[in-house]
Amino acid sequence: MRHPLGLAALFMIALATAAQAQQLPFKVATLADGLEHPWSIALLPDGDLLVSERPGRLQIIDAASGRKQAVGGMPDVRAESEAGAMGLALDPDFAGSGRLYLCYSTGWTLSPGNRLSAFTLKDNILSGEQVLLDGLPGARWHNGCRVEISPEGFLFASMGDATDAQAAQDGTALGGKIFRLNRDGSVPADNPFATSFVWSYGHRNPQGLAFRPSDGALWSTEHGPDTQDELNLIEKGGNYGWPLCHGTDACGALANYHPAVAEFEHDSTIAISDLIFYRGDAFPDWKGDILFVSLKTGRLYHLKLDGNRVAKAEILLDDEFGRLRDIAESPDGSLYLATDNGEDRILRVTPR
Ligand SMILES: [Ca+2]
After folding, report:
1. Looking at residue 88, which CATH number applies to its domain?
2. What tens digit of pLDDT does each residue of 147-199 get?
3. C-alpha of residue 230 to centroid of ligand 1, in Å
4. Is residue 300 part of a domain?
5. Read out DSSP for 144-157?
6. How far apart are the CA of 61 and the centre of ligand 1, in A?
7. Domain boundaries, position 57
8. What is the pTM of this model?
9. Cα of 283 from ligand 1 centre, angstroms
10. What are phi and psi of 299, to 5 degrees?
11. Residue 20 has what pLDDT?
């Protein structure tokens, strides 16, 4: 006679969910809609948003009105499955130079690749492409392409294994890596492997990068296979295990191996996406903490760290808006979230 018990349990879960929704410390509103797979949100100096859309567009979105304006001069982009226009970062001198970095998919089915380039954005038009990393492997899936500037001013970019898992452990291949470049495209003299852009290896598809404000450490989220999405603390020259070792598992004698700090979850995936360290004052309880979003499960997570360990994890959103691809923090401490459902929105999260 499990049926009555099941109904009672479902009813109690529904009540608990409604009560939790009322206790959420934030409101969620739509800033802009009519978007298609927005992938990366960068905050412009005036607080407006620059957003890449995977099919091959950039949009400037007015932070007050949500009005969109497409950017001209985009390069040809290979938009298929999970490939397209992806990671975006503004140069620290963007306000003066208009320089930005974009990682996007190139070629087509017979010669798929990915490319990291710098452009100049002036008067809503991209120009002056400077190719920094070309010939990155590409596929329909696992194209990496998250781009982030470190506090020291280095350019970091991630690359997935592009469905060639063995490449991740091959130091001469470009798949399954996190790269560190000077912003002019040269190899930094203190990179771990001579004359190589590779900063860390053994990655499957790391699509979140963020630097912890307190110490400048690089953290990354990475898609696991059908289990064990990862949160990693990225060390110079580190091996992150793929395809030999997974999640937080111990892994015998693999040299330089760094198991994940945390995995989500041990016997399933949430399809983990981008992360930030929260810096603002609008949500005092989150200051210095990790916030990240997920695709398949449509979640917003909040993690409190104790040193390099996760001390507390809570789920703030749980599929209320479908898949979530990107998260960014506005200058006033509110959050922007990008949905990834095909008919998409930029959501704004503000204190209640
Ligand atoms: Ca790993």
Report:
1. 2.120.10.30
2. 999 999 999 999 999 999 999 999 999 999 999 999 999 999 999 999 999 99
3. 6
4. yes
5. ---EEE-TTS-EEE
6. 35
7. 26-351
8. 0.93
9. 31
10. -110, 155
11. 53
